[in-house]
From TrEMBL:
<keyword id="KW-0285">Flavoprotein</keyword>
<keyword id="KW-0274">FAD</keyword>
<dbReference type="InterPro" id="IPR036318">
    <property type="entry name" value="FAD-bd_PCMH-like_sf"/>
</dbReference>
<dbReference type="InterPro" id="IPR016169">
    <property type="entry name" value="FAD-bd_PCMH_sub2"/>
</dbReference>
<protein>
    <submittedName>
        <fullName>FAD-binding oxidoreductase</fullName>
    </submittedName>
</protein>
<dbReference type="InterPro" id="IPR016164">
    <property type="entry name" value="FAD-linked_Oxase-like_C"/>
</dbReference>
<feature type="domain" description="FAD-binding PCMH-type">
    <location>
        <begin position="36"/>
        <end position="215"/>
    </location>
</feature>
<keyword id="KW-0560">Oxidoreductase</keyword>
<comment type="similarity">
    <text>Belongs to the FAD-binding oxidoreductase/transferase type 4 family.</text>
</comment>
<dbReference type="InterPro" id="IPR016166">
    <property type="entry name" value="FAD-bd_PCMH"/>
</dbReference>
<dbReference type="GO" id="GO:0016491">
    <property type="term" value="F:oxidoreductase activity"/>
</dbReference>
<dbReference type="Pfam" id="PF02913">
    <property type="entry name" value="FAD-oxidase_C"/>
</dbReference>
<dbReference type="InterPro" id="IPR051264">
    <property type="entry name" value="FAD-oxidored/transferase_4"/>
</dbReference>
<dbReference type="GO" id="GO:0071949">
    <property type="term" value="F:FAD binding"/>
</dbReference>
<dbReference type="InterPro" id="IPR006094">
    <property type="entry name" value="Oxid_FAD_bind_N"/>
</dbReference>
<dbReference type="InterPro" id="IPR004113">
    <property type="entry name" value="FAD-bd_oxidored_4_C"/>
</dbReference>
<dbReference type="Pfam" id="PF01565">
    <property type="entry name" value="FAD_binding_4"/>
</dbReference>
Length: 462
């Protein structure tokens, strides 16, 4: 915990109004979207990179552990101050500084809200394609620190692909200004890439140059009800071979039931499937729409789709997407045990069936909900907490279940965290996806960037 003296020194760096240790503020700012409990010493809001650097330098001198905080939408506990750390929120460093139309880049501070960057890009006639349900509250610095993925990875890749330059304050308190928009830059190790997805364990993202791209034309979705998992994967193969897609998402009938019931939404089509796919593409001209319809009809003829609907307006496009994007927040009331897994796309069918078998054998009373980004190999497994169990007992039993699931995952060379990061919640499972040598090298890199071990200690590994 911070002494009064250190607290006053920190206040002198940022101003009295930009630091707090008021109890309600501590519990709000000290955590992310997980159910982990915050135990923060104080929250500080630097206003610029110089103040941020001064805070990190003081933290080095006084050996104060820091937790970087952005939009607090994370699902792995990466932004949770669980051990009396000082939370450093980048919320106030939120200006969009500079747009370059020729390079198609925009410089923004870490605290810019993802949706604001998307809107800014649109004002310039361009597009920032990394997108997910929490884009209205997540911050670009957090997106970079977690290498956020989302619903359009199939076409556009993850955040890493859109970072053209980074300005960071390292854990040692130095400022590194890296790359500055170059597309080609083969000058040794790419240090910038180490900070992307490092979950704040190496330093703070203070500012980023983000790439933009051309705006997609007339995005359209086709929602299909499919009879089985194997049919779903055949539909995926069929559409991928037949046309260019911008997203291919899926969710189960149970997920659809929860969303439509809780939010009082219409079911999208008459037939009931075991799963539903949401296939997005750019309907640039009539020929593309005809092609999508032809593929849809072939799926119906082959019995791998039962029914479907194609969006005919922007409103319908949005309401179909809502059925997918609301799943996570609707399920929150069942306090689900969440996994965010990936295996090579070709092995997903086999893997999902094995996971279902493990759960039905070891915990048949648990309801399992699948959804996610099946087009890029990333599925979200949510196990719902039964009312009669308390959260601690439920989590404990799910952890035992997880070990079994991860043994199978490892045999597919899968990832224990495809897009949500390791944080606190997944670090016990890191060894299923990373070798001892890889983990030792990661620790060595941390030592270089953060010699006093003040940056987000205990996250990713102990
Ligand atoms: C999603 O795809 O909806 C997000 O990753 C959130 C979640 O997994 O619950
Ligand atoms: Zn996701």
């Amino acid at each position: 915990m911070l002494s009064d003296e250190i607290y006053q020194q920190l206040a002198a760096l940022v101003g009295d109004k930009k630091i707090t240790r008021e109890a309600t503020e501590l519990s709000y700012w000290g955590k992310d979207s997980t159910s982990l409990i915050a135990n923060a010493a104080a929250i500080i809001f630097p206003q610029n990179i110089e103040q941020l650097q001064a805070v990190v330098q003081l933290a080095n001198r006084e050996k104060i552990a820091l937790v970087p905080s952005a939009g607090r939408t994370g699902l792995s506990g990466g932004a949770v101050a669980a051990q009396g750390e000082l939370v450093v929120s980048l919320r106030d460093m939120n200006s969009i500084k500079q747009f370059n139309a020729v390079d198609r880049t925009v410089v923004c501070e870490a605290g810019v809200i993802t949706a604001d960057l998307q809107a800014y890009a649109e004002q310039q006639g361009l597009y920032y394609p990394v997108d997910f349900a929490s884009s209205g509250s997540s911050l670009i610095g957090g997106n970079i620190s977690t290498n956020a993925g989302g619903i359009k990875v199939l076409k556009y890749g993850m955040t890493r692909q859109w970072v053209a330059g980074l300005k960071v304050v390292t854990g040692a308190g130095d400022i590194l200004d890296m790359n500055k928009s170059l597309l080609k830059n083969n000058t040794g190790y790419d240090l910038q890439q180490l900070l992307i997805g490092a979950e704040g364990t190496l330093g703070f993202i203070a500012e980023a140059t983000m790439r933009l791209t051309r705006s997609p034309e007339n995005l359209t979705v086709l929602l299909l009800a499919v009879p089985s998992l194997s049919a779903l994967l055949q539909v995926l193969a069929h559409f991928q071979a037949g046309m260019e897609l911008t997203a291919f998402e899926f969710f189960s009938e149970q997920a659809l039931q929860k969303v439509t019931t809780q939010l009082q939404l219409q079911r999208p089509c008459d037939e009931v499937g075991q799963y539903y796919t949401l296939i997005e593409f750019e309907a640039k001209d009539e020929a593309i729409v005809d092609q999508a319809m032809a593929l849809f009809e072939q799926c119906l003829e082959q019995g791998i789709a039962l029914d479907g609907v194609m969006s005919q307006s922007q409103a319908q496009y949005q309401s179909l997407w809502r059925l997918r994007e609301e799943i996570s927040s609707v399920l929150a009331q069942w306090q689900p045990f969440k996994h965010d897994l990936s295996v090579p796309p070709s092995q997903q069918g086999e893997f999902l069936l094995e996971v279902e078998k493990i759960i039905s054998e070891l915990a048949p009373q648990y309801q399992v909900i699948w959804y996610g980004h099946i087009g890029d190999g990333n599925v979200h497994l949510n196990i719902l907490k039964p009312d009669e169990l308390n959260k601690t007992d439920f989590d404990l039993s799910c952890k035992l279940l997880s070990e079994e699931i991860f043994k199978h995952l490892a045999s597919y060379q899968g990832s224990v965290s495809a897009e949500h990061g390791i944080g606190l919640l997944k670090k016990d499972y890191l060894h299923y996806s990373r070798s001892d040598l890889e983990i030792a090298l990661m620790k060595g890199i941390k030592q270089q960037f953060d010699p006093n071990g003040i940056m987000n200690p205990g996250k990713i590994f102990s």
